[in-house]
Design brief:
Length: 531
Amino acid sequence: MLYLTKDLFPVFVPLGVVGFYRYLWFIIKLLAYFFYRPMMPKDNPTYRAEYDVTIIVPTIDAGEEFKEAAHSWLANNPKEIIIITETKMREPLQELANSVDPTRIRVLTVPKANKRLQMVEGIRNTTSEIIVFADDDAIWGPRCLEYILACFEDPNMGGVGTSQTVKSVGRYQTVWEVLAGFRLTIRNIEIAASTHIDGGICCLSGRTAAYRTCILQDPQFQYGFTHDFWLGKYPLNSGDDKFLTRWMVYHGWNTYVQICKEAELLSTFKNNWRFIKQVLRWTRNTWRSDFRSLFMERRIWTRHPYVAFTMVDKIFNPITLLSGPISVIVMAAEGKFHLPLWDIFISYIVWLMMTRIIKLIPHLFKRPQDIIWVPAFLIFGYYFAIMKIYALFTLHEVGWGTRAGIDQTPADLAQEKEREKQLLDAQEFNQNEKSYVGEIPRPVSVGNSELIRHFSQVQQRQAQAASAGHTNSLIIENVDPDVYENDQDDQLAQYFAESDVAMAMRDASGAYGQQYGDYGQLEHYGREGYL
């Protein structure tokens, strides 16, 4: 054997080291997975679903699968279910809600389809201690909430996730759904391992995740959540679960994942080629979030070093994965093997198949019929490695990819910026309009850019008033609501308009802390949004 390979030592030794590392890493994760244990519910729990849990479901196109999911949520006996959709979808969603349970399901709307705005609207209408976000097709077991709430016995617990499996869209699972199931099996192993080793997790999946309401109702969080930009100019709509997970880590909250049958949820996936677009969106979100965690926020290194290492490992994973087959193909093309090429290729493929089957054993125990799709999973793995590289160089693409009507294209953003510029110019032209001294008009619904510009002018007028002897007076310019008639985020803008008025009040008088103390946290974090 040494005789056959000694002239290729410079190639095989590095590949052998990489292979040894990969499988050692997998064995560590597998051992941690077997030692992991879920938190068990107490006989007298602190939190009860019927008093302390609100389920928030942002959606735009819920269909009949929503009914099955809603019945499964109601079987867990939550205090309330809030459905948030866009205005034009209110009627069909209300009909769906009424057909399930009109007394415990509320339907709210936002002006346009935007998942993060919908989630914030639900948060602001919640009165319970715990919020559970759920996809409109996430089907729970009857004890799911009970096991989720068990984790919140820890007063430092901020977020809790669950294990997942695939629910077939049709009678039989397509190859795309089987691939999704394979990926979920590996993910369940990874998150159980990281939870057991250092209590961290790369992402609390948005399909179902629970959080303390007090965290999410913080204005600082809501501002950062709805003003999340990549590189400061690409607004992020998807990736909400990544943001929430990073927020928990950065602000010192614990997280946990319940990997057990009782807390397992069923979820549908795209059963056709559009599954590829889903994976591409998730991959871009992962790149963006991991870069932020590792290099911008950096809290992950000290709080969850194992999770930080897994993030670094994912960065180099495409290279290590592709190095093997590329080396074999190149050496075969150059005729460097002393054996027939068919023997080389067949042996290599059999080896790869065996390693994939080992990784998928937990899945194959449940669905042994899926073993016929292991070759497809092998091919998909290499395709995914190439996709990760492509995703890395297209992180500026922030669209949803699989749903129409919930993102803004770059052209839309350019048009919106141009409208903002025109509106600001109009406002500057009317600077000499009537002003009010000592009186605060009702905040109007304006866009955030207009607000910042407007209140910078307010501060200038405050300085002028102070020099004139009006040190305890607040000057607010009379804003013509018609100037902002094109604003699309009326409800959210109203919320932040009030916060900006409060901040202006603080600058003009000492009454800020008494009347508007809740908004004070905004300045601590800044007005530029979350990293």
